[in-house]
Fold this sequence. Notes:
The protein folds into three domains: about 10-115, Orthogonal Bundle (Fumarase C, Chain B, domain 1), CATH 1.10.275; about 120-160 and about 170-360, Fumarase/aspartase (Central domain) (Fumarase C, Chain A, domain 2); about 365-470, Orthogonal Bundle (Ribonucleotide Reductase Protein R1, domain 1). α6 (about 115-155) packs antiparallel against α7 (about 175-200) and α6 (about 115-155) runs antiparallel to α19. It is mainly alpha-helical. It is elongated and about 100 Å long. It is about 60% helix and about 5% strand. The strands form three sheets. It has a two-stranded antiparallel ribbon. The chain has a two-stranded parallel ribbon with strand order 3-4.
Amino acid sequence: xxxxxxxxxxxxxxxxxxxxxxxAAEIFTSSxxxxxxxxxxxxxGSIAYSNALMKAHVISQKECKRIIKGLTAILKGIKSGKIQxxxxxxxxxxxxxxxxxxxxxxxxxxxxxxxxxxxQVATDLRMYLKDEIxxxxxxxxxxxxxxxxxxxxxxxxxxxxxxxxxxxQPVLLSHHLMAYYTMLDRDKERIFETYRRTDVMPLGSGALxxxxxxxxxxxxxxxxxxxxxxxxxxxxxSDRDFVLDYLSAAAILMMHLSxxxxxxxxxxxxxxxxxxxxxxxxxxxxIMPQKKNPDVAELIRGKSGRVYGNLMSLLTVMKGLPLAYxxxxxxxxxxxxxxxxxxxxxxxxxxxxLATAKFNDKEMLDAARKGFLTATDLAFYLxxxxxxxxxxxxxxxxxIAYCEDANMQLDYLSVQExxxxxxxxxxxxQKIISTESSIASKDIYGGTxxxxxxxxxxxxxxxxTKVKEKE
Length: 471
C-alpha cells in the first residue's frame, strides 16, 4: 500500500515552504515525546493568554469563551488518555494548537496572535519548574526530619570521627548525622533561590522583539502566579539560566546524598559493621548466597554522576548560542526532567532507607576506643599545664609511638608511664583520655558535646516546624 504523501500545509508554520520535512528530519526535530510533560502548564498558559487577547480587544468575549472551552476539553482528554500526541506536530504546543483548531475551527487560529513558541515554551518551562521545586522542598525537609529523629534517638552513641578515612577524634553519631542535616539546609536555600529566579514571566516577549498588541503582561503574571515580569524580550526567550540554576543546585544536593551513601556502603561492610540496612533497601548476589548488598545506596551514589552530566550537557548547549532563541535550546528539557525525577526519587529512598536502618552502637563505641582518638585531648591537657602546643604535640606523638610498640591503647597508660614523657602529667590526665571525656570537652557552639548536639537538634526541630507551616 502506497504511503500517503505529507503536505507542507499540514504544518501550522508551512506557508512559505514548498516541500515537506523529510521523515528522518521530522523524527529528529520532534520533541513531543518528552515535552508532553508540559501539557498542563501549556494549556493553563494558553487560557490566560486568551483572556489577555480579549482584554487587548484582539478577540471577542465569545471567541475567548470558545477557546477556553476547547482548551479545557483538550486538558480533560489528555488527562483521561483519550487524546494522543502526534509526532508530525513537533511539540506539545503545536499539538495542542492543532487539536484546538480541529475542535473549534478558525477561532482556534486566533489564539497564537502575538505569541511565539519562543515565549510560550519559556513560560511553560518556568511554571513547570516552579511546581517541581515546590514538590522537592518538602522531600528535603522530610529527609532532614528523619535525620533529626535519628540524632535524637541515638544521642548517647559515640563513634569515631574520620579525616582521610582514618580514625581521628571521637564524636557523637548524632553530631555526624546533624552534619548532613546542615548540608541539606544549604541545599534547600539554593533551591529556594532557584525558585525566586525562575519566578519571572517571559510571556508577551513574542519571538524576540515583543508584540505589536497591547497585551497586559501584569495581568498575565498575576493570573499565572509569577512575581516578576521579564525586562528584556531578547533575553526572555533565550534565557535558560533558571534551568542551569536548578541543575547546579540539584548536582550539589546529589553530591551530598552521594557522600552519605558512600558512608552507608562503607559502614554496612563486615569490616565496619556500624549499620545494617533493611532488606527492603538491599539486594542479594546471583551466585553468593550470603551476600547482602547496599544496592540502593550505591545507585543513588551513581546517579549523582548522571545529574552532573545533565548540568554539563546544558552548559555545553548554551555556551555558544547567539541571541536570541535557537533550536539547540530544545535540549534543555530532557536533562531537566531527568534530574527532577532522579532527585525526587533519591530523596524519597534516602529517607526510607535511613528510617529503617539499624545502627550498631557497640561496634561504633569499640571503634572509637581504638586508634588513639583522644591523643589531641592529651596534647591540650599539656597546653593547659603551660606546655606550648607544638611541644605538647611532639610529646604525645612519642607517647603514641610507645603505645604502638607495646600494642596498647592510650587509656591503659598509668600516670607513672605518662610522667616518663613529661613531668606536667598528673593523676587527672587519665580522665582526659577517656572517650566520654573527649566528647564532653567539646562544649562549644557547633561542637560534639552532648549538650551542644541537643542544642542543635532543638534548633533544627524548631526550624523544620516553621518550614512545614509555610508548606
